[in-house]
Amino acid sequence: MSWMSFAKDLYGGRIEQICILSDLERMKGEAEELRQLHAASTTESEDTLSAKTKKERFDGQSWDSVKTSPF
To answer: According to the UniProt entry, which residue ranges have a biased composition of type Polar residues (predicted)?
Structure first.
């Protein structure tokens, strides 16, 4: 099976389940790296959120700012 047909079948829903074989030791190292990255990003987002309360962030969202937003 080519990668292209695999991707099409996976995207099209014709493949319900896949099994990925991997090296356990390498995966442990990568999992630890992900854990550390997640811990760092969680700390940053908590600091950002604690800088302003939810009410302050809500109050800062005026109708004019919503209208001018490209999203």
So the answer is: 39-51, 62-71
